[in-house]
């Protein structure tokens, strides 16, 4: 559970990092700059884990390498923005946030499922030949 202070610092870092990527350092990122989906701060406020949303990037891995190669420059630009609010600018660790891609994948999986409609009320649950459908056995020792 994060403290209120951690949450406030994480929110501040998320806003300011987005501004750094879009306004201060757009020359580092060809095309669209990465989006910040989440920031988590350690209890001592010394380390910030930044989750990047790279959905619109053509090559997410190359974009992450580009960000990691410029961590020092990004941290310096961030220090200029939050220097009056934070005593120490946390070390930045960048990770790819793939939750949106995972949600799209799960949506596709659920969309491809074939679920037969439930029988209407009043209809019996018998098969077309008049017999009840067989219930699958879940366990080997299950009796009918």
Automatic annotation (TrEMBL):
Its main location: cytoplasm. InterPro entries: KH_dom-like_a/b, RbfA, RbfA_dom_sf. GO terms for biological process: maturation of SSU-rRNA. Residues 114-144 are annotated as: Disordered. It comes from the Bacteria. GO terms for cellular component: cytosol. It is found in: Cytoplasm. Keywords: Cytoplasm, Ribosome biogenesis. GO terms for molecular function: ribosomal small subunit binding. Pfam families: RBFA (PF02033). Belongs to the RbfA family. One of several proteins that assist in the late maturation steps of the functional core of the 30S ribosomal subunit. Associates with free 30S ribosomal subunits (but not with 30S subunits that are part of 70S ribosomes or polysomes). Required for efficient processing of 16S rRNA. May interact with the 5'-terminal helix region of 16S rRNA. Monomer. Binds 30S ribosomal subunits, but not 50S ribosomal subunits or 70S ribosomes. This is Ribosome-binding factor A. It comes from Hymenobacter gelipurpurascens.
């Amino acid at each position: 559970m994060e403290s209120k202070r951690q949450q406030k610092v994480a929110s501040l870092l998320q806003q300011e990092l987005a501004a750094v990527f879009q306004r201060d350092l757009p020359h580092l990122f060809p095309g669209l700059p990465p989006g910040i989906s989440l920031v988590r701060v350690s209890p001592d406020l010394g380390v910030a884990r930044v989750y990047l949303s790279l959905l619109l990037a053509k090559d997410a891995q190359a974009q992450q390498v580009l960000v990691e190669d410029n961590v020092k420059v990004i941290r310096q630009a961030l220090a200029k923005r939050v220097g009056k609010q934070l005593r120490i600018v946390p070390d930045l660790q960048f990770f790819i946030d793939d939750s949106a891609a995972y949600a799209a994948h799960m949506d596709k999986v659920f969309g491809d499922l074939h679920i037969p409609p439930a029988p209407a009320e009043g209809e019996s649950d018998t098969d077309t030949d008049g017999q009840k459908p067989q219930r699958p056995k879940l366990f080997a020792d299950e009796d009918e």
